[in-house]
Write a structure and sequence with these properties.
The structure holds 2 protein chains of 2 kinds. By secondary structure, chain A is of the alpha+beta class. Chain A is 21% helix and 41% strand. In chain B, strand 4 and strand 5 form a beta hairpin. A 6-stranded antiparallel β-sheet of chain B has the order 1-2-4-5-6-3, with helices on one face. Classes of the chains: A alpha+beta, B alpha+beta.
Chain lengths: 135, 161
């Protein structure tokens, strides 16, 4: 399912990639720790963590839309990121879950974690507008 | 605060150190302006920061990074010293896409500081601050030691004795 997914330029240049694993049918994304994501020394920058969450959210939505045979243009409405624990100098992972997939709007919840899947470091809720191409 | 006024945190000076390396250095953030309780930074246009292959428009992700960094610096600017903070919660409401091939500026003000928390709000815009790309609101907490505090090279810039 995730083979058809392609990450946008920003995701690729930030070093994000698809792990090939899924959770609840949704693709798990990962990023290694390195200078490109570092904020406070030896910790993830909040913006880099947000980038991981946001891309995992879009990847989940694209996956759900592909399964439904839809290919709309996606426009961000808003994102709220909650930071729960410092992102340390190791790989981070994230996966999205579709809370509601409507005709025009989608509500997606995303979780990011590091070594321990049961201890999230950040979560996000995203509202995304979907614009279908005119036939 | 026991920080001498001559060593007050200065966002312009601190930017020279902050944007040399790490995530914000990689994004190429630049200092543009500051006030008593606000800081404005610029995220330059760059081809590899696109969010959508079909349009030459900056992705929303780096705009979050821009606003997160401007938020932290607005807090230090308001407080007058560099006391490490961690983002607790950051909300971004996108108003419209950035214009094609446009750099985006982020202006964030810190409107309230308590002993352990700081509250910020701001806008991201391309050419007209009255027509923003996004509004943001955030809440930050002060945290423990940051190794950058002990860096002698940062004393002046970061406002420490």
């Amino acid at each position: 399912m995730s083979e058809a997914l392609e990450l946008p330029a920003y995701a690729r240049s930030l070093g994000l990639s698809l792990t090939g694993e899924t959770e609840g049918g949704m693709p798990v994304l990962t990023v290694d720790f390195g200078p490109m994501v570092e904020g406070r020394p030896q910790h993830f920058h909040g913006g880099a963590t947000a980038g991981l969450l946001e891309n995992a959210g879009y990847a989940a939505l694209r996956t759900a839309l592909l399964a439904a045979g839809r290919d709309p243009l996606l426009k961000p409405i808003n994102i709220t990121v909650q930071y729960l624990a410092a992102g340390k100098s190791q790989a981070s992972f994230a996966v999205g879950r579709i809370t509601r997939l409507g005709r025009r709007n989608a509500n997606v919840t995303v979780e990011a974690w590091q070594a321990d899947r049961s201890r999230p470091i950040a979560t996000a809720v995203m509202n995304i507008l979907m614009v279908e191409a005119q036939p | 605060m026991n920080t001498p006024s001559t060593l007050r945190f200065d966002a312009r000076e601190a930017s020279k150190w902050f944007f040399r390396h790490g995530h914000t250095g990689w994004l190429g953030l630049r200092f543009t302006d500051q006030g008593d309780n606000w800081v404005e930074l610029e995220l330059p246009w760059r081809e590899d920061l696109l969010g959508d292959a079909s349009r030459p428009v900056l992705a929303s992700g780096p705009i979050i990074s821009l606003m997160d960094m401007a938020s932290g610096m607005a807090i230090w600017q308001t407080r007058g010293n560099f006391q490490p903070v961690a983002t607790l919660d950051l909300r971004v409401d996108y108003q419209r896409p950035a214009r094609e091939r446009a750099s985006v500026r982020g202006r964030v003000e810190c409107y309230r500081i308590t002993r352990s928390a700081a509250f910020v709000r701001g806008v991201a815009y391309d050419d007209d601050i009255a027509d923003p790309v996004a509004h943001v609101a955030g809440c930050f907490m002060t945290i423990g030691a940051d190794p950058r505090e002990g860096n002698p090279a940062l004393k002046g810039a970061l406002g420490h004795e």
